[in-house]
């Protein structure tokens, strides 16, 4: 299989991963309400499912990354795809919320797609081409985000369980495709130790943070994730409050922003990084993010928000550049380990921030100052940018 074919498969995997998630997001509330016969209990179960998935992903991500270094990328990626397909099928067939909780927990423990895709790309892409490759990953993610909810809403109008069958079918089809054609990118190193210290999330994150360059880059990633999750958790509510937008209006704006970001990452990230370098691009993207978050906090008219959305499109180059920088800093034999620790860090943000940001937004709303939540996001993004700007571009020795 040629490198271009492998890249196509990985991008398709990311697209289907996000498409499958997007398919079911609009439908989960209806399914849980059907299973519990109580909207109040459905909300509680929805929160429990999300938290359980995040906690299991946090606990298992370093192990999956370590397994990818020891046994190869391919088996871990195929396991993740299989667990995801089983999870969606369980959603389609479940007769109780406890069934969903069990299978969703297993899927969280096997959620290694992002870890393995990032490590695989580092294996098969030369350093000078990684920013473009990670930009394409971001584009595939964005396109899946746009298409998923639309298709899910249409299928859910026919039957509430139909989107889950569709998501499961997509996952299993991709699993079969990968099983037949995807080669191993890097033979596993059986000398890679699997110990409690190297595979537990706290130990893996601590080991990463102790490293001078990777530790600062990981800290920047955490701060950027915090800012991103604050926005995701509160943005729709903020727009509804500040501008009285309908859900349709909010949805269209989100979809348009995601589509513009995907097209930009697909076409522009590579040339920008070649011209500016990874560090300058990452810092520039961070500064644009700070501008967008701070501006959103004080935007008083829709046109101001539209301008900020346009400014936010090129900010997406910063994430791809930072990911390329991280992969180039890590040694060739530890890409899975590093990406697994980063996935655990991301899982922390995705598990904790929605609850905390939602509570903070509610408190600020009571005082008529909901925009201040984006000041917090801007502070997180500014901290990430400062870490990036003050980090060395040191590379590991060749062969490390």
From TrEMBL:
List membrane-spanning regions. 7-32, 44-64, 76-94, 100-121, 133-158, 164-182, 250-269, 281-299, 305-328, 340-365, 371-389
Location of this chain's protein in the cell? Cell membrane
Which residues does UniProt assign to the signal peptide? none
Lineage, top-rank taxon, reads: Bacteria
The alphabetized UniProt keywords are: Membrane, Transmembrane, Transmembrane helix, Transport
Q: How does it sit in the membrane?
A: Multi-pass membrane protein
This protein is called: MFS transporter
Recite the lineage of the species. Bacteria, Bacillati, Actinomycetota, Actinomycetes, Micromonosporales
PROSITE patterns cross-referenced by the UniProt entry: MFS, SUGAR_TRANSPORT_1
Concerning its family, UniProt says: Belongs to the major facilitator superfamily. TCR/Tet family.
Q: Where is the Major facilitator superfamily (MFS) profile domain?
A: 6-396
List the InterPro entries.
MFS (IPR011701), MFS_dom (IPR020846), MFS_trans_sf (IPR036259), Sugar_transporter_CS (IPR005829), Tet-R_TetA/multi-R_MdtG-like (IPR001958)
Source organism:
Actinoplanes oblitus
């Amino acid at each position: 299989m040629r490198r271009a074919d492998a890249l196509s498969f990985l991008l398709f995997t990311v697209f289907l991963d996000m498409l499958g998630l997007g398919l079911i997001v609009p439908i989960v509330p209806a399914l849980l309400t059907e299973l519990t016969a109580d909207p109040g209990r459905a909300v509680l179960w929805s929160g429990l499912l999300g938290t359980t998935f995040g906690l299991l992903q946090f606990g298992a991500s370093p192990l999956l990354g370590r397994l990818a270094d020891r046994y190869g990328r391919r088996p871990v990626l195929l396991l993740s795809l299989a667990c995801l397909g089983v999870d969606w099928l369980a959603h389609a067939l479940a007769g109780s919320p406890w069934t969903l909780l069990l299978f969703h927990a297993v899927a969280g423990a096997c959620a290694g797609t992002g870890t393995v895709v990032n490590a695989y790309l580092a294996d098969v892409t030369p350093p000078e081409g990684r920013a473009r490759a990670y930009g394409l990953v971001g584009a595939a993610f964005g396109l899946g985000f746009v298409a998923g909810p639309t298709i899910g809403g249409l299928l859910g109008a026919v039957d509430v369980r139909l989107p889950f069958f569709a998501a499961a079918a997509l996952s299993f089809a991709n699993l079969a495709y990968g099983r037949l054609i995807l080669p191993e990118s890097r033979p596993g190193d059986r000398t890679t130790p699997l110990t409690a210290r190297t595979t537990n999330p706290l130990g893996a994150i601590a080991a990463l943070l102790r490293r001078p360059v990777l530790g600062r880059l990981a800290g920047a990633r955490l701060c950027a994730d915090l800012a991103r999750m604050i926005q995701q958790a509160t943005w729709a509510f903020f727009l509804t409050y500040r501008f009285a937008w309908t859900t349709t209006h909010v949805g269209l704006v989100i979809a348009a922003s995601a589509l513009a970001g995907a097209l930009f990452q697909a076409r522009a990230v590579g040339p920008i990084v070649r011209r500016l370098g990874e560090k300058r691009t990452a810092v520039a993207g961070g500064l644009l993010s700070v501008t967008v978050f701070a501006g959103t906090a004080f935007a008083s008219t829709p046109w101001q928000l539209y301008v900020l959305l346009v400014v936010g499109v090129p900010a997406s180059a910063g994430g791809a550049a930072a990911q390329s920088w991280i992969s180039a800093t890590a040694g060739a034999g530890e890409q899975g380990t590093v990406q697994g620790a980063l996935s655990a860090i991301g899982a922390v943000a995705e598990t904790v921030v929605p609850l905390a940001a939602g509570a903070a937004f509610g408190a600020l709303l009571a005082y008529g100052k909901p925009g201040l939540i984006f000041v917090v996001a801007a502070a997180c993004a500014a901290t990430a940018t400062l870490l990036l700007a003050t980090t060395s571009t040191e590379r590991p020795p060749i062969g490390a």
